[in-house]
Amino acid sequence: MKALVKEKAGPGLRLVDVPEPEVGPGEVKIRVLRTGICGTDLHIRKYDDWARQTLKPPIIVGHEFSGHVVEVAPGVEDISVGDLVSGEGHLVCGKCRNCMAGRRHLCRNTIGLGVNRDGAFAEYLTLPASNVWVHRVPVHPDVAAIFDPFGNAVHTALSFPLVGEDVLITGAGPIGLMAAAVATHVGARHVMITDVSDERLALAGKLGVSLALNVSRTTIGEGMCQLHLREGFDVGLEMSGNPAAMRDMIANMTHGGKIAMLGLPAEEFAVDWATIVTSMITIKGVYGREMYETWYNMSVLLEKGLDLTPVITDRFPYQDFDAAFDTAASGRTGKVILDWSEEARPGRARNEPTEAEAAPTMDRSA
Q: Which residues are recorded as binding Zn(2+) 1 (predicted)?
């Protein structure tokens, strides 16, 4: 089968032929239809300091995917050949204190799909059945492929009650955009999202936000005036990892405000702890998804009409992976999808829909 592999230390990825994986005990085998390109994948391709410290090449990369089940190990229940599935990319030990208490997202022994174990940028992958999410309601393969980052957005956005609240989101990357869509959908009063990319802020406008603000030209305080806010934001969702964004967020929160922080800074930075203390601001770190409450929330949000399609801006056949990665790294797009279906072909216009992409619901023929 074809797979995108980090073969050795150094920049780049290669599309090579590798053996198809075999199903182990308690596992399922999946024919991949779509994959999403994540910031983690960009780090791996670049082979930066994090990748050098984390990866042990050779390894198949990628962790965001959708596909059809083609084989199920004996004893696996509630998953059938033909099911459209996504997968939780954090494989946990099941034995530590948090796992035993049902807090699997806090497992200290987590193994990452496409980081510590062969991943999803391939025609086939295997995954423990406990990590497989079966889509019981219709969902397009493109959207199913981004359930992993969608889960990050939902986990962050639903960290605190949002109904009737004024919400500030810093960072309009794909996860920030999805968090904005969630906040608007569940009943926030005002949702303001900030970034320095006009292209990404234009995408935010399609998701129903109250204000998409370019902070290279307009301050958050000026944005608050446009929304007629007098006391600051009730909830902050920090999605960028940018020190200036976090400091600006803290400075514009109401007393008793709550911040959920998903953005991962590249290094330590200072914040105004005096304001955090005297304004009694709560800051919660968020990583990954709650297993599997967040997945349930995601499916219900889509079932109740949340539309993520504006977040998906670019599609490429998997053979054009270099162009796809360059597009994702540009910082000007939404989510970039690689098509691994049998009808994927090189040279297809990057937003030209395939037959499967035109289907309104699950398409088992994709």
A: 38, 63-64
